[in-house]
Amino acid sequence: MGSDVRRLFLSTGVHVPCLVQGAASAQPLLLLHAWGESRRSFDRLAPLLEGFRIFVPDLRGHGEADKPATGYSLEDQARDVAAILDALGLKSAAVLGSSSGGYVAQQLAVMQPERVDALVLAGSPLTLQGRPAFADEVEAVTDPLDEDWVRQSLLWFPLGRAVPQWYLDDRVADGLKLPAHVWKSMLAGLCQAAPPTETGTIRAPALILWGEQDGLLPRSQQETLAARIPGSVLKTYAGTGHVVLWECPELVAADTRAFLAQS
Question: Among 93, 107, 214, 222, which one is most buried in terms of CB atoms within 10 A?
Answer without folding.
Answer: 107
